[in-house]
Structure formats: structure tokens, C-alpha cells
Amino acid sequence: MDVFVEQMVVKKKTGKDLARTAACALGGAVALFLIVSFLGQYLGFLTFLIVAGVFYLLYQVVISSNVEYEYSFTNGAMDVDKIIAASRRKRMTALNAREIEMMGTKRNAAYDGYIKNGEIKKVYACTSIDDNDVCFVLYTEGGVKKLLLFNPNEKIRDGFRRLNPQKVFLND
To answer: Do the bridges between strand 67-74 and strand 4-10 make them parallel or antiparallel, or are there none, so unpaired?
Structure first.
């Protein structure tokens, strides 16, 4: 029987995202003021193009903080994609549930050790690192140990549990 589960989660905006948006708005306002003040009377249409370009760049920076993650679980193969501004997709990682070293929740005793280990590459694909329902998966991809932090729904958790029950610890 084939198993296919797809899930979308929206990343919560952090203080860093809000600060970046505010800094861009302030910087854009200053840049526009300077452009119009110094170039407005000399370059006419070129000034208009520069102002339009600044507005477009500001718009791109602001919408790039709208991030979603898509988890696709198909017969044990898990793909995690990052979707930026509902228009650009980037593959973050891919793994096989049969080949993981461990899966657990944040409450698992091993979680803190893995997070603090600098040799393990972290893949953040969760709504917020502070959420209580964040799970982790320790696996190897391309010879590199990785730790995926994500918010799987119950169907994805069950898929991992069925395919690799001795390495899944979700009742901690």
C-alpha cells in the first residue's frame, strides 16, 4: 500500500524579520529622499526609474519574509521544501525514514545534545523553534550528519513510526 502525505506549515515571523522590514522601510525612505533631492531636478525620467527600482527592491525584501515549508512523505521518502513568498521553491533536504538514526520530540533527553553539537548541520523547517510540537530527525545526507527540526502532523509521524519503530521516540 502506497503512503503519500503532504503538509504545509507557515513560519512564524520573528523579531529579526520585523526588524529587517523596519530597517528596509527606513533605509528606503532615506534613499528615496536623497535620490529625489539630488537627482530629481537633473535626471527627470531616470530618477523615476531609480525610485521605482528602490520600491521594487523594498517590496521583494518584505515579501521574502513570508516563508512556508512543505513536507512530502511518500513511502518513506521525506522531502522538505522551502516556499518563499508563495512563488519560489527551494529543496532544503531529502531523507529516507528507513535510514534515520533517531526521531524524537523536543522533550527527548538527546535533543539538547544534538542542538549544541556544532558538527551536526541544522535544517530549520519549523514554524518556530520555540513551539512545543517541534520534532527532530537525525540522519545522514551526502556524508553529512544533519538534524531536521520540523512540525510533522500525525500521519507523517505514523509513517516514520511504521517504517522505523526502533528509532522513533515520540512519547517522551
So the answer is: antiparallel
- How far apart CA 129 and CA 135 sit, in angstroms, is 10
Q: Got the DSSP string for 75-93?
A: TTEEEEEEEETTTEEEEEE
pLDDT tens digits, 82-111: 999 888 999 999 999 999 999 999 988 899
Distances in Å between the Cα of 168 and the Cα atoms of 56, 60, 130 are 46, 40, 21
CB atoms inside a 10 Å sphere around CB 9? 19
What confidence tens digit (pLDDT) does each residue in 115-153 have?
999 999 999 999 998 888 899 999 999 999 999 999 999
End-to-end CA separation in angstroms for the chain: 29
